[in-house]
Amino acid sequence: MASGKQAKEKSSNKKKDLTEIYEIRKKLQKILKPDRYEHSLSVSFTCICLAMRYGVDLYKAEIAGLVHDCAKQFSDGDLIKACEKDKVEITEDMKKAPQVIHSVYGAVYARKALGIEDPEILSAVYHHTLGKPQMSLLEAIVFTADYIEARRYKAARLPEIRQMAFMDIERAVYEINHDTILYLEESGGYICKLSYDTYQYYKELMKSRGLPID
Ligand SMILES: [Fe+2]
Ligand SMILES: [Fe+2]
User: Are 104 and 94 in contact (CB under 8 A)?
Assistant: First the structure.
């Protein structure tokens, strides 16, 4: 059982955590358009729910969800310029799909504009668009929450993938990658190599578990 001193420290940490979250929300509200801010809140609450399910730090999950789109307000051109200025490496592949650059630059901007230093949170921001093979649980949670949050309505299999996210997050990551690649193929969008690599990794993982896949 926690001693009185430990319990007191824990509660003052919680107060500090909440103050930080309110501060980040205030800053984000000034940076983002209202619908993007609403999406960010919704992703952060979905991240909290998934973190409860998978035993991940709730505070990190909430912050990562909150800030994942912090660089989304920049135009593609401004993002490329900002990456050059801040020496953030972006591949030629990413330049062909500039909508993914906000995640790469977001990991830098979250530190610069919002004071986020935690490398696990910054990595989850960095990878939230393309994913990567063998994501950490926090990375997989932000990647998944971004797709399933309650304000989303366009993706074809949302009810199914929402349920799956709470049963098997790696399966959900596989299905999200599958559907995103299919959508990009059908709509003529450019698909980054890292997106294929992520897809292949999770496909092999599903196969190794004997799960039926396309
Ligand atoms: Fe995003
Ligand atoms: Fe997002």
Answer: yes
pTM of the model: 0.93
Please name which of 139, 138, 161 lies closest in space to residue 148, comparing C-alpha atoms: 161
Cα(153) to ligand 1 centroid in Å equals: 16
Mean pLDDT, range 35-44, rounded to an integer: 98
Taking a 5 Å cut-off on Cβ, the residues next to ion ligand 1 are: 69
Q: Which residues surround ligand 2, an ion (CB under 5 A)?
A: 69, 146
Position 3 scores a pLDDT of 66
Q: Per-residue pLDDT tens for 104-141?
A: 999 999 999 999 999 999 999 999 999 999 999 999 99
Amino acid at residue number 179: D
**Smallest-distance ligand from the CA of 126:** 1
- Picking from 159, 141, 160, 142, the residue whose alpha carbon sits closest to that of residue 150 is 159
User: 192, 71, 180: which is closest to 122 by C-alpha?
Assistant: 71
CB 177 within 8 A of CB 202: yes
Which tens digit of pLDDT belongs to each residue from 77-106? 999 999 999 999 999 999 999 999 999 999
Q: What pLDDT is recorded for position 102?
A: 98
Domains of the chain: 14-154 (1.10.3210.10)
Helical H runs in 55-87?
58-67, 76-85
